[in-house]
Amino acid sequence: MSDATTDVKVTAASDIEVDREALDRSIKDFAGPNGDYYVRAFHTIHDSTGIIPKTFNMAAALLGPVWASSRAIWGMFWAFLILEIIAWVQIGRGLWGNLGAEFLDRAAQQQVRMQERLDQAAAAADETSRQRFETLAGNMQRAIDQNIERAEAAQAEGMSILVTGLMLLLVFKFVQGVYANVAYEKQYSRWRIDPTGTESGRSTKNLVLGAVLTAAVAPLIIYKFTVSNSLALLDEFPERQVSEAVLGEGGGTLFGAVASWMEARIDAAATAGGDVFDGIVAGVRTVLDGLTLALNGSPWPVVMLVIAVTAYRAAGPRVAIFTIAAMAYTALLGYWALAMETVALVGAAVILCVIIGIPLGVWFGKSRRAYRMAEPVLDLMQTLPAFVYLIPIIAFFGTGNPPGILATIIFGMPPVIRLTALGMRGVPDSIKEAAVAFGASKWQLLKDVEIPLALPSIMAGVNQTILMCLSMVVIISLIGGGGLGQEILEALQFAAKGPGLLGGFAILFLAMVMDRIVQGAFKRADQK
């Protein structure tokens, strides 16, 4: 019995030894040069239980960020490059920085003004004027003396700044030496999981790149922050001048040339396509006028009742009660007409977004090539600040509610397109194959299988589009849009805190009502 136990222990120890040898070979394969050192360091890190590891990488401490770049630890490279630059800036300020330059410049300017007052005193015609100028000159002399004292005091701090910089540099070097192996061991763990996606070994290319980056960044920053009168080229990018041959008499800047060219092209396009743009505005205005007539033209009790019943049917009694309270808030504060105009604006934008966006989303969901081509455009529509594309909207479509709706469509359409495409791609292939096997045509497959299964994602996109369109209400008021956004804009212009907050709460309640109704309808459809 004891012999069997001994054999098991020997076998287990043998297996552990084999595993350790395999781990050591793996570490050496990862580290490349100095593999034996990193085997010992990684084992020490694994066996250590304290916060501070019991290893110290001398090469990392001496070379600093350059060592990190050679081992492709780029996060450590940038972090300690910035920290070491801070230390070197303090050292440079202590060694050659003119710490009192600001005070000396101020004293020199005051010296010039004092001399002017002394000259005026010498040329004064009466005793009173002469005394007044001499008094002013005396005050300036005292100010000059104070600035000179401050400059001397600042210069006296040079040694303490130098010592502080040296201490910081030593601390940063020590921290790099202590935690370099820890950072490299974490990179080794990532390499074991993903060998192709994680760099290993010591790369000469990365070493050269790190050295070049260090040489390009560190000296310029140290020079900029330690020399009192640095090169003007480092403070401001030189503006590109354009010759007279391009801009005509006098020439000008590159900005002026490009801006003038763009303005001329936009004006020419607006003139050439005036009929098309007017037609688009007329179509948007038709949808908007219909909604405005239904909401603001109908008796307000009818509108309130229809909205409350819709909320009850879609989302239940609690949402209906909240909807009635929100509408009562807008009505009692005199915001009813503005709130209905806002709903009309948002509704027109959402209707157009859905009419255009869902078919595009279906197309993009079926054609990955088309989606890849459209994705940069969708990214641009969502990331470009709204204030930027308001400019071409004004240039091509003018101002008012219809152009504001067009700007809202640009901002609000991407979610419904993306989520519709996502829902279409999420339909299982097995279900589509089964439908085709039962003789479904392409139209039947789309209408009866794909769209119903993608409907949750499509409705989520519609909900996001509604909220994003509502968030544009205040922005489109900048180009003449009406509704509650105009109220908020006027409150901002006149710093009217009370009206601004009341109007903001009205917009908030509208957003909550729309969101709850759409979500409630979506959840009820899911339950069915």
Please tell me about this protein's structure.
The chain has 528 residues and is mainly alpha-helical. 83% of the residues lie in helices and 1% in strands. It has helices at 2-31, 35-47, 58-63, 65-70, 74-95, 101-122, 127-156, 158-193, 204-226, 232-235, 244-247, 254-272, 274-297, 300-315, 317-332, 336-366, 368-383, 386-397, 401-425, 429-437, 442-471, 473-476, 484-493, 497-527, and strands spanning 241-242, 252-253. Strands 1-2 form a two-stranded antiparallel sheet. Helix 6 packs antiparallel against helix 7 and helix 14 packs antiparallel against helix 15. The longest helix is centred in the N-terminal third of the chain and has 36 residues, at 158-193. The model has no long low-confidence stretch (mean pLDDT 83).
In short:
The protein is mainly alpha-helical and about 525 residues long. It has helices at about 1-30, 35-45, 60-65, 65-70, 75-95, 100-120, 125-155, 160-195, 205-225, 230-235, 245, 255-270, 275-295, 300-315, 315-330, 335-365, 370-385, 385-395, 400-425, 430-435, 440-470, 475, 485-495, 495-525; strands at about 240, 250-255.
- State which percent range the strand residues make up: under 5%
User: Which runs of at least 5 residues are low in confidence (pLDDT < 50)?
Assistant: none
User: Major sheet: size, sense and barrel closure?
Assistant: 2 strands, antiparallel
Helix and strand composition category: mainly alpha
Q: What is the string of helix and strand elements?
A: HHHHHHHHHHEHEHHHHHHHHHHHHH
What's the gyration radius in Å?
Answer: 36 Å
Number of helices: 24
Helical content (DSSP H or I, runs of 4+): over 70%
Span between N and C termini? 68 Å
Mean pLDDT equals 83
